[in-house]
Amino acid sequence: MSANSASPSSRLMSGNRCSLPVAVFIVLVCLFLLQLYSLLPQKDAFKLDPQIHTSRRFRELDEVDEENIQMPPPRKRSPRAIKRKPKRPTTIIDEFLDESSQIRHLFFPDMKTAIDPNKGNGSFYYNPGRIWLDTEGNPIQAHGGGILYDERDKTYYWYGEYKDGPTYHAHKKGAARVDIIGVGCYSSKDLWTWKNEGIVLAAEENDETHDLHKSNVLERPKVLYNENTGKYVMWMHIDDTNYTKAHVGVAVSDYPNGPFHYLYGKNPHGFDSRDMTVFRDDDGSAYLIYSSVDNSELHVSPLTKDYLDVTNVVSPILIGHRREAPAMFKHQGTYYMITSGCTGWAPNEAMAHASESVMGPWETMGNPCLGGNEIFRETTFFSQSTFVLPVKGLTEYFIFMADRWNPADLRDSRYVWLPLKVAGPADQPLDYEFGFPLWPRVSIFWHKRWKLPFRWSE
Ligand code: GAL
Q1: What domains can be seen in the chain, in order of their start residue?
Q2: How many CA atoms lie within 13 A of 18 on its CB side?
Q3: Which residue's CA is the nearest one to ligand 1's atom 2?
Q4: What confidence tens digit (pLDDT) does each residue in 53-77 have?
């Protein structure tokens, strides 16, 4: 073999005047030592091979439950009632929205089935749709919410709309509403037992010109921690009774459990802004994502370094798709988002989207819901996305958080939490290209009841 054509390793060896047999011997010894090491008992296999371990520990999360909800037989109506309101075909969604439906208990099980951390039975099981009590025994009031994991005290904080008031219609054709009470906050170490931290941003009782006056709308609050300033920053949807103001609002606090001080509300970039969320990337940059142009498109805008405002950069995405209730997350360098359609409090089909950059372009990958039955999958399990929670210690799974709105009694709206995974081949071609996306499928698995694996946080 000529010197020029020799491999780098043989060149090295000839420099040291080593013979080939010696090199082979060294390699064999190394291989033997490696083999010996692999035979040693591994105390912490989970840490060494999270992928393999995860798949075994978490298999149950992928095994969906089936549902078989039947339409109830048509109700008997008097000839007078038929004359007044001619019969039209009813759908399962009509039944879901009808307070007096015979199958109402299937969507809104009563207090007897409530999840109560004080009773301990069914511990750590999530039961989508059932009433969920806090540690004081009261139903959790954190609708349209989001969760912040606070590294400083290793605690999860769940913020959401505190809707524990009477539901009414401000106008005959207006959406059902509850006066603003404020933003509720609950804390937990285990994501199942929630302590009420109180109302961390309260409504304004008297000043009618104030954004937080009780006659207005405060929805979808989300909180980020800013490492540059050491402050907790809350973003929310602020509106008037008729949803014509379409502002975002910003509040700030020194502590995760408040009190938050309301700073201002505005039309970001001069645009209308309704359903919204915020997203913090690994490098500390954060973004506001809001439904705009009468909900016909979403806008993404980087926040300023202190998270207290948007920068003047804005990117319209999913133009013409009419999506709202955005919930963004990141997995292995790719950005994902779950959104809903725009049907007010009524449920509709979720879509998953993906992008290589937060600012887009974003592609729609299709309906992420698996299990239940067709109507469950077409209604996001009778709920609407609000947040996707990365869970400390889990690599493959997220928790998909959604609201099962009860427009007849909004305070009784329920929570639908389900495991979400990014894996497997996509099942729908890209919007604008003849091909399947390079990124995998987003799946949300329906379970009547499920729990995170034992000692998931370790
Ligand atoms: C939905 C929205 C909710 C709430 C509701 C009022 O479209 O996602 O957050 O605003 O409309 O009808």
Answers
A1: 76-445 (2.115.10.20)
A2: 14
A3: 344
A4: 456 667 889 899 999 888 888 777 7
